[in-house]
Design brief:
Blueprint: E1 16-17, E2 24-25, H1 27-44, E3 53-57, H2 62-77, E4 83-90, H3 97-111, E5 115-119, H4 120-124, H5 128-135, H6 140-159, E6 163-165, H7 170-183, H8 186-191, E7 196-197, E8 204-206, H9 214-223, H10 239-254, H11 258-268, H12 273-278, E9 283-284, E10 291-292, H13 298-307, H14 317-325
Parallel strand pairs: 3-4, 3-6, 4-5, 6-8
Antiparallel strand pairs: 1-2, 7-8, 9-10
Helix pairs in contact: 2-9, 7-10, 7-11
This protein binds iron/sulfur cluster (SF4) and zinc ion (2 copies).
One zinc ion binds next to helix 13.
Pfam families: ATP_bind_3, zn-ribbon_14
Region (Disordered): 342-364
Protein name: Cytoplasmic tRNA 2-thiolation protein 1
Length: 364
């Protein structure tokens, strides 16, 4: 019997089974099809214009490392005409972010892209280690998520960029669709599948990997021998999201198209006008100027709670009441400052033997 050939080029021997389609293909066809699909997503959504300054949100993890590699590759191959930057947020998590930032510094050298690192301590005066010491491990991810979102925008503003791209992949988007359904959060459900979001005063944000499977990102990083950091955060991540993730992985094992199907379902929902009308209008935070749907942005409220020893101030209704009852904000309270420029650095490890032999590919 003649040896089986790659389902795409029909010339080379296949070395992997593609998780998204189940096709058995060769390495160079995998690279090409993976890169071309991202290119198609970018062009079909008209994400960029020539001359755009684009920051890649880089954590040192697999998604953002592959994104940096792909953005550079496609920008060169198809002459997008983009000025690319790496932007990293240092949450101040000892034994996790300090190590992953070393990986970003290594990527910075490999891809020869300018790197900006902005830290929570620089911006908020608190590291995540300090925050966890004060609030414990229950709401730590709420602080971290709110602070990261604003830090990314501020870091991007410091770089003078027009657009931030993040490594959110198809699995992340499908998981968010499921979570918004399970929480009944219709407003977020309506927004979460958008490839690109932009408020009036905000920097554009997009997800070029919106349709890219996590398993394929891992394979791409592996076969390209990219340097990335794969350790989990030491502070327990959101347990509910973890259940949604496990559920999604079970669905994917039974039917690989489940991930794309859920995204398509999310895209097809239409939000009723009453729901849209019920959404708060965006304004700017009276204290720090960041976009907000209230007088104070969420980060300023959370920061005030930390500073005044009322950690639930921005989290529970009871916390808000406590803060209001505690009287006016003291004048000497630490607030979020205006931006300043920062710069570069270096080092990290890489992967080995093929963990996806054809007979036991990740899609099972
Ligand atoms: Fe921050 Fe929570 Fe993510 Fe850790 S798991 S980086 S604390 S959001
Ligand atoms: Zn091939
Ligand atoms: Zn604010």
């Amino acid at each position: 019997m003649p040896p089986k050939l790659c389902a795409l080029c029909n010339t080379s021997r296949p070395i992997l089974k593609r998780p998204k389609t189940g096709q058995q293909i060769c390495k160079s066809c995998f690279f090409l099809v993976f890169e071309t699909e991202v290119h198609n997503t970018i062009t079909e959504s008209q994400l960029f214009q020539s001359g755009d300054r684009v920051a890649i949100g880089a954590s040192g993890g697999k998604d953002s490392t592959v994104l940096a590699h792909i953005m550079k590759t496609l920008n060169d191959r198809y002459n997008y005409g983009l000025d690319l930057f790496l932007l990293s947020i240092d949450e101040g998590i000892t034994g996790y972010r300090d190590d992953s930032l070393e990986t970003v510094k290594q990527n910075q050298k490999e891809y020869n892209l300018p790197l900006k690192i902005l830290s929570y301590s620089e911006l908020y005066g608190w590291t995540m280690d300090d925050i966890v010491a004060q609030v414990g491990r229950k709401n730590n991810c709420t602080f971290c998520g709110v602070f990261r979102r604003q830090a990314l925008d501020r870091g991007a503003a410091m770089l003078g960029v027009d657009h931030i791209v993040t490594g959110h992949n198809a699995d992340d988007v499908a998981e968010t669709v499921l979570m918004n359904i399970m929480r009944g959060d219709i407003a977020r459900l309506g927004r979460c599948t958008a490839i690109c979001t932009q408020g009036e005063d905000t920097i554009k944000r997009s997800k070029p990997f919106k349709y890219t499977y996590e398993k394929e990102i891992v394979m791409y990083a592996y076969f390209k021998k990219l340097t990335y950091f794969s350790t989990e955060c030491i502070y327990s991540p959101d347990a509910y999201r973890g259940h949604a993730r496990t559920f999604l992985k079970d669905l994917e094992a039974a039917r690989p198209s489940a991930i794309i199907d859920i995204i398509h379902s999310g895209e097809a929902f239409e939000i009723r006008d009453e729901v849209k009308r019920g959404q708060k209008l965006q304004q700017t935070c009276k204290r720090c100027g960041y976009m907000s749907s209230n007088d104070l942005c969420k980060a300023c409220t959370l920061l005030e709670g930390l500073e005044r020893g009322m950690a639930n101030a921005g989290i529970t209704d009871k916390g808000v009441k406590q803060l209001n009852a505690a009287g006016p904000t003291p004048d000497n309270l630490r607030t979020i400052p205006f931006f300043q420029m920062n710069t570069v650095g270096n080092s990290g490890p890489s992967p080995s033997p093929n963990p996806w032999p054809l007979d036991s590919g990740p899609s099972g």
